[in-house]
Amino acid sequence: MIDANFENGVSNLREEVRVALKRLPAHFIDGQWIVSTTTIPVIDPATGTVVAAIARGGAAEIDAAVIAAARALKSREWKSLGPAGRERLLLRLADLIEANAEDIAQIETIDNGMPLWLSSAVVVPGALSVYRYFAGWPSKLTGETMEVSAPPNFGELFGFTRREPVGVVGAIIPWNVPFMMAAWKLAPALAAGCTVVLKPAEDTSLSALLLARLAAEAGFPNGVINVVTGYGREAGEALVRHPGVAKISFTGSTATGRRIGAIAGEQLKKVTLELGGKSPSIIFDDADLDAAVSGAATSIFMNSGQICVAGSRLYVQDRVYDAVMDQLRRHIATLKVGAGLAPDTFMGPLVNAAQRDRVLGYITAARDATDVFQGRAPQNGPGFFVPPTIVAGAEHGAAITQEEIFGPVMSVYRFRDIDEVLAAANGTVYGLAAYVWSRDINRALTMAAALECGKVMINTPGFPYPPLPEGGYKSSGYGKDLGREAIEQCLQTKAVLVRTG
Description:
The protein contains 17 helices and 22 strands. By secondary structure, it is α/β, with parallel strands linked by helices.
């Protein structure tokens, strides 16, 4: 039930969103809604009020979902669809997402706290493009044939390979951009012919539940897509450990990723891990400073810094350092921080109180040794707000330099030349992304080759593009989301040898 104090633009909510908030807490397993009496409250991050509830699942619900997914994987109904049928279903799901885009965007904003412009213009369209991109892949998955040189007396032989779905995929997604993350996991798995058990983050499960309804409407056979909500230590751990799961695809913290990798290694499961980041933005003295400052700020303050590839470390060449700092301070003063459903909000709250307190702890710890500049944010209210923050002068070994904060905090550093900035930029355990700002394309491309990370953006804050893979180096994980590599990781290769004479 919606709390009576929920006033974060509730009068402007669409009817389907109101209905979604009032639905009984349930899991989606084998095409059925399984109502649960054990629940988790859904908190609006902008007000701190309870707006709904989700089901709290554990090992029993995960087991039922995996059994359903395994049965569907071998079912005639799913297998007989073939490439054309999988393509048709993915395109139908994309059409339904487009038709319900406003509802999805409002639910994402209420659940996560992100501003409505972000959920409407970036998250939902981004997810939509992923489903449509991977809808084109089922008919492109081919094996190889080859001539075989056989030993004496073996006769005439030829060989070929088959590409087959890896099996049941366990997908665990984070709370920062949940609807888009669900697309990154589900679309390649379904295109490859796998079946899926999705475990969304306990803080942001509402859009995944709406996705399950749309998938059922699109006509996916029962058991192909299952959604179990609950805490990571209960439902998430059970999903990783379940012997019926062939592959785990996880996006989240490096600490949790290491644990998942260890469990998967024991069971020899395939695994894709897109983990933490501490991505550098680098502004050279020949950069277009207006574009660079705006782009660097966007890369960290969008979605309140709750983005894996957030440009949380800014390196500025000596000659333009003072000018960049002056522009940054003026820029963050213009950023409106408020409720996601409120008009003109650029930056919403953090997802929950624990995350807010964690981010504020880093800022407090940095104040003694650095200069801290902050924009404005709602104060002394119930929401989980942190103002956009710039920290200048931190040491290379400081926590604010080395650790992922996952909040609207940018630390700024001077550098003299390429060698110095490369050593600093590569000098963390992470390697997810980097941003380079320079008019000299040769220098920018030299940087792109030398930076130890999975993605480099040149003269742009960047965005995920479905054909380009996303994933990191070092402690930022292994395996890729998006692109050809994502679907390849949902397939396994079988060799067949045939005697013909």
